[in-house]
């Protein structure tokens, strides 16, 4: 299992993040991203995951996070600007990571070898 | 008008120029939430046609389908939309899951391959829409990653979302659970299968996307 820091994620482009995640997950790693992914990055990840699914080899990913929050600080409100605050995200191979339950404040998952 | 007709003048280009752009509304959600059942009902109610086949096996819809010029009239207001019925979005597709429904291995693999292409198509369509009807199965946990991703995408682009909490004909459905998960968006509890509350949904569509 790897924990990837916010600083490392900030230094990467969207495509670099998605590629890193898929490569690591395909190697059987479970990743915890301190900052998470934007909705756009998540859809990119889903798209690329679908392209890489192969019968008897890779069936996809399990990804869990809470909904993004909007940054509503004074300056953003003043200029009518919306920025999204992404949140901690766990991603792993669908064959090894299984969500048992998810609600507003708690995600329960099962990790198998 | 009579004079215009007699003079043979054609002002259709003028009408087109001032006509409001039609909104493209996607019907999204996880597999088996009832998207095509709802699309069929909407299109059948307002055009008399159907949109696609439905099945209890997930990923029955593996190609996005677009029905143009569906005019919905409710409470004196009307809206004309292009309705896009999309394949269910998923983060994993395992052909073994189809085999549990009795499909042979080869067919399951083919279906899985088509389903992955369908998900990619759904994701591509996200960039080209003006709003979404997000269909959620009211008997299931609403906090799925698919719901979170779809809502996050539309919120980021400030596009309207209408949640259809489907399958309220089933005894264990709980639209309230969905409403509490996503209180920031309008929700209509419906049964796409038997049509319960469908008029309420049309009213919300006309108000929300008009």
TrEMBL record, chain B:
Pfam families per the UniProt record, alphabetical: MMR_HSR1 (PF01926)
Ranges of residues in domain G: 24-167
One of the GO biological process terms: tRNA methylation
GO MF annotations in UniProt: GTP binding
InterPro entries (alphabetical): GTP-bd, P-loop_NTPase, Small_GTP-bd
Superkingdom field: Archaea
Cellular component GO terms held in the UniProt record: cytoplasm
PANTHER family for this protein: TRNA MODIFICATION GTPASE GTPBP3, TRNA MODIFICATION GTPASE GTPBP3, MITOCHONDRIAL
The protein's name: GTP-binding protein
């Amino acid at each position: 299992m790897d924990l990837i820091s916010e600083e490392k994620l900030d230094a990467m482009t969207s495509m670099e993040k998605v590629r890193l995640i898929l490569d690591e997950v395909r190697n059987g790693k479970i990743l915890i991203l301190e900052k998470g992914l934007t909705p756009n990055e998540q859809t990119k990840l889903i798209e690329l995951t679908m392209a890489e699914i192969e019968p008897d080899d890779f069936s996809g990913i399990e990804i869990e996070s809470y909904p993004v929050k909007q940054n509503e600080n004074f300056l953003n409100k003043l200029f009518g600007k919306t920025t999204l605050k992404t949140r901690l995200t766990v991603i792993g191979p669908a064959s090894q990571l299984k969500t048992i339950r998810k609600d507003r404040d708690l995600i329960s998952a099962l990790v198998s070898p | 008008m009579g004079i215009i007709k007699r003079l043979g003048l054609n002002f259709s280009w003028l009408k087109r120029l001032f006509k409001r752009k039609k909104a493209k509304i996607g019907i999204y959600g996880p597999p088996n939430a009832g998207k095509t059942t709802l699309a069929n009902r909407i299109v059948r109610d307002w055009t008399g046609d159907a949109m696609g086949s439905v099945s209890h096996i997930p990923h029955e819809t593996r190609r996005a389908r677009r029905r143009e010029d569906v005019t919905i009239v409710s409470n004196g207001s009307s809206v004309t939309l292009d309705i896009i019925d999309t394949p269910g979005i998923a983060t994993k597709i395992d052909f073994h899951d189809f085999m549990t429904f009795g499909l042979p291995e080869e067919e399951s693999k083919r279906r899985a391959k088509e389903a992955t292409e369908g998900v990619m198509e759904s994701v591509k369509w996200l960039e080209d829409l003006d709003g979404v009807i997000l269909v959620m199965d009211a008997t299931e946990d609403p906090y799925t990653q698919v719901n979170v991703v779809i809502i996050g995408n539309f919120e980021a682009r400030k596009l309207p979302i209408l949640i259809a909490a489907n399958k309220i004909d089933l005894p264990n459905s709980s639209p309230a659970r969905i409403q509490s998960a996503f209180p920031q968006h309008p929700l209509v509890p419906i049964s796409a299968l038997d049509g319960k509350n469908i008029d309420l949904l049309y009213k919300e569509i006309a108000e929300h996307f008009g």
